[in-house]
Every structure is written in structure tokens, then in C-alpha cells.
Amino acid sequence: MSLALLFPGQGSQIPGMGRDLAAAYPEAARVFERADDILAFSLSRLAWEGPEDELMQTHNAQPAILVHSLAALSVLRPRLGPIACAAGHSLGEFSAHAAAGTLGFEDAVYAVRRRGELMREAGRARPGAMAAILGLGEREVREVCGAVSSGELVCVPANFNAPGQIVVSGDAGAIDDVLARARQAGARRAVRLAVSGAFHSPLMAEAEEGLRKCFRNLSFGPPEFPVFSNVTAGAVRDPGLARRLLVRQLTSPVLWSQSVRSMVESGVERFVEIGPGSVLRGLSRRNARGVKATCVGTARDLRKLFPDPVAAGSTP
Predict the structure, then answer these.
(1) Residue 152, domain CATH
(2) Contact 271, 284 (CB under 8 A)
(3) Is residue 24 part of a domain?
(4) Do 128 and 170 meet the contact criterion of CB atoms below 8 Å apart?
(5) Using N-to-C axis directions, what is the helix angle for 105-125 and 92-100, rounded to 10°?
(6) Residue 302 lies in a domain
(7) Which of 52, 58, 104, 125 fits as disulfide partner to 116, beta carbons 3.0 to 4.6 Å?
(8) pTM for this model (two decimals)
């Protein structure tokens, strides 16, 4: 079956993430060890033990999720057949490019750490917020955002996750207004998200320039398989285009639902979400009905798919 890899974004982090993988599989442990060396601090300890409030910080959560995803992939990859393509939600797009070889491991870890720092700084310079709106269509959400975006206030759709599940992003005052208007328009639910800034909105413009400078020191190569872009929902095979779109992603909406549909239209028959949590598998059930989706983020997940006598004898 034509296989696509999916990689989760920020919000999937949780203390303990990846610990059982590292205990059961030496190759996964080595991925965490390499990340600790690259960052010059124990990311592995933070991911495995917390504290949770520190792990939740953007500049820590992003590398922790990427490293967890790539640790799981290090075990899974030799057991998989051919990979047709990959995609990742926001931060997860960096994991997808690392999996495809567009970015080397060291460059990917460094890039997402710096990306998180830049997003944190942009959020402090211009505080913003994000909110999830459930039960309204794309047109209604755009209308609500347009109604509150005037003068100096900004609010835009930020994540098109699935039909009837859209996240908006912008100035805190505009978000408060959007929540009220969305409920009046018939939203089933409209709630603020626990984030430190207005991600995927014009409020991240300062971070965009910083990431562009960061990329000057990194090497981008041709991917082994196409990676579908959050910005365009199209397949990316050119390293120069990958570089440009990963920068634009900071201020552009994540076209996740459209990306999944594009992968299915290209012939994908199975999704495997790799990393902490199962958010993308859940969204796949709405974006690609009838297409099998699996999540692999723990040693238990791996053993279910590929019983391994050596790993099964280990003690997580």
C-alpha cells in the first residue's frame, strides 16, 4: 500500500515522551543522546521527567517533539516498505523534512530550537493568542475574523485542521471578540488555546526574518520523497522551495486538511503518524475517510506492529 508519514506539531508534548522508546531500543536512545550533544543540555531528561511547565515552553517543546518523532522513526524505518511522501503539522513539517533527508539531523534540531526561540520572542514583542473554533465552515470563520480585524487588531485563520475544525490566531483583544462572534454564529465550541503567541499569523513576522537568517547556516538537500507543504498543500521536491516555504509557514495558515486530501489524491492508501500523541491520526478519520491511519510513538506501539524478541525482552 502507498504509505505516507505524518509528524505531529506543538501541543503533543507530554512529560515521559520517548522514555520507553529509549529504554527498549538502543537506536532510539542514540537519537536522544545526539540531540543532547547538539543542544548542549539534556533535552532527553526534560522530555522524560519534565518539569511540565518547562517542557511546554515553545523553544523546548519543538525540539522535544522533533527528536521523539525521529527516535521512533529510527526504529520504524528499517521495518517499513517504500515511503510515498510525508507531511507534518506546523513544527512537524521540519520532522518530515528531516525524515526525507532535506535537512540533516543536526540542522533540524538546531533549526527547531531556534524557531521556538524566535516564536517566543515574537510573542513577547507583540502578545497574541489562538483559539479553536468547532462547528463553523471556512467561509463563516473568515467572515468572523474579518469582522474583528480593523485598525491595529489582527485575527486570521491559522490552522485548517479538518472540516468544521479551524484555529484562529491574532491579537489577544481580537481573539476575545472572535470567540463571542463565533458562538453567536453557531459554533459548537470556541475556546482559547494554551499557547504563548499568535502562531501562523502576521504577528510572527519578526520570527520569519530571524528564521531566514538561521537558514543561511544550514544545508538543504533534495528530499528522498516529497514533503507536502503546510503553506501550499502541494508536494515539495526542491530544496530551495522547501527552505522558502518553511520560512513562510510562520506567518501563513496550516492547510492541513487540504494537504491530507492532496496526499490521498496522489495515491496514498495508508498513513502512519510518528511521534507523541495521536492527533493527526484522529484528524485523518475526518480528512481521509476510509484510509487506514496508525500512530507510532511508544515502544508498545512498535511492538504491536513489529514484534521484536530482543526489544520485547527489555524493560522500559
Answers:
(1) 3.30.70.250
(2) yes
(3) yes
(4) yes
(5) 160
(6) yes
(7) 58
(8) 0.95
Are residues 178 and 39 both part of a single domain? no
DSSP state of 252: S
Residues of the chain short of pLDDT 70, as ranges, are: 1, 308-316
What phi and psi, each to the nearest 5 degrees, are found at residue 152?
A: -95, -10
Look at residue 291 in the predicted model and tell me its pLDDT: 96
How many domains, in total, are found in the chain?
2
Which domain does 132 fall in, by range? 128-192
Q: pLDDT value at position 307?
A: 75
Q: Which three cell numbers stand for residue 119?
A: 516564536
pLDDT attached to residue 194: 86
HEC assignment per residue over 109-133 = HHHHHHHHHHHHHHHHHCCEEEEEE
Q: Are residues 206 and 171 in the same domain?
A: no
Same domain, 39 and 100: yes
Q: What residue spans of the chain are helical by DSSP H?
A: 19-24, 26-39, 43-49, 52-55, 58-76, 92-100, 105-125, 138-148, 172-184, 205-215, 239-248, 256-265, 279-287, 299-305, 309-312
CA neighbor of 48 nearest in space, from 309, 304, 298 = 298
Distances (CA, A) of 255 to 12, 56, 185, 188, 289: 18, 24, 23, 22, 18
Residue 271, strand partner residues: 4, 293
Phi/psi for 196 (5° steps) reads: -100, 10
86: left (phi over 0), alpha (psi -120 to 50) or beta: beta
How much is the pLDDT for 196? 85
Looking at the structure, do residues 215 and 115 belong to the same domain, yes or no? yes
Catalytic sites, residue numbers: 90, 200
pLDDT at 308: 60
In a domain, 197, yes or no: no
Provide the pLDDT for residue 262.
Answer: 98
Domain end marker among 192, 211, 241: 192
Give me the CATH number covering residue 31. Answer: 3.40.366.10
119, 162, 191, 114 alpha-carbon torsion, rounded to 10°? -10
Closest residue by Cα to residue 231 from 259, 205, 209: 259
Cα 231-237-243 angle, rounded to 5 deg? 55
